[in-house]
Amino acid sequence: MRVSRERVARLLDRSRAFDLILRARARARVPVLSVLCYHSVGEPDENYEFDPEVIDVTPAQFRAHLRVLRDHFSVIGVDALCEALRGGKLPPNPVIISFDDGYRSCSEVALPILQEFGFPATFFVATHYTAERRLYWWDKLYYLIKNSPRETLVLKYPQHKEIPLGDHAEAAKQLIAIVKSERGLNLGRFMEAIIEGTGITWSDEVEAGLADKLIMSWDDIRRMHEAGMDIQSHTRSHRVLQTLPMKDLVEELVGARHDIEQELHHRVRTVAYPVGYSISHLPDVRRAVQAAGYEIGFTNASGVNYLWRNSTIDPFDIRRLAIDRDLSMPMFRAQLALPPLGYASDHRGHPEVE
């Protein structure tokens, strides 16, 4: 139970047990890699028109997290991990700071804070939205739901469905579940069906204006890269890989890598899977990821990674620790020092795909 774990975490934190564990781990050089997964840094606002769940931390919380890393960890980038998986050595208590998607808050809020601490971070970017100035599909559907004048959305694709709009979060949850599970979904047609069902007047110009407020441009990303941040792939349009036909899967994987390398003249070696489902049980998807030129794949399955010399760790199934605003500092320290006591969730990364 989360409540009992919280209580245990607070007791251990008060006794400084987590500090002792992390110091001992550093001295013993226990090869445990933690990868933190963020999306956006900001202050929650009830008038926010997009998906509020992607705001993982406030600036104050993010600074508090980085202070823990400064005291006990060695912050590394994905290149160091690539070399370690080939037999290289990692520093004591290695950790990777990662951000998914490409929100503007990454350049405007997260970057200055990272620079305060002198830390690198890895930003996994969904390139279609950056290039085309389009809203991420989940933010777009949240915007449409929140601004709809209707009480019920009558969805006509991929099947007829009536969704009450009184509870915005519940309506969004139902629509997001379709994207995550419907094999072969035409995402463009699906979003058009939502626009029609919500009765919102929509245009490319309206969407581009909203995207400019929410999503980094290539110029923003270039400045991040020049500041020492690493830019890696989050596919092109953030589709759930296991729902795609092979042709689209290859386009998502190869296309994003090409986009980033062309814009930044920078080698792309890793991908964070959209939605974060593990592909360990999907050999065709795994082969496609590897064939696209990636050396490492990151999931959102909760956990740390044990890199023992004789371990059989799958480089395409690297676990991360999901961060959310409700995660207390004792629980944050717990998930780094004493996993799985402090895991924010028990998400194992296996979807139900129709």
TrEMBL record:
UniProt GO molecular function: hydrolase activity, acting on carbon-nitrogen (but not peptide) bonds
SUPFAM superfamilies: Glycoside hydrolase/deacetylase
UniProt keyword list: Signal
PROSITE patterns (alphabetical): NODB
Compartment list: Secreted
One GO biological process term: carbohydrate metabolic process
Pfam families: Polysacc_deac_1
InterPro entries: Glyco_hydro/deAcase_b/a-brl, NODB_dom, Polysacch_Deacetylase
Any one annotated GO CC term: extracellular region
PANTHER family per UniProt: POLY-BETA-1,6-N-ACETYL-D-GLUCOSAMINE N-DEACETYLASE, PTHR34216
Name assigned to this protein: Polysaccharide deacetylase
Organism, scientific name: Haliangium ochraceum (strain DSM 14365 / JCM 11303 / SMP-2)
Taxonomic lineage of the native organism: Bacteria, Pseudomonadati, Myxococcota, Polyangia, Haliangiales
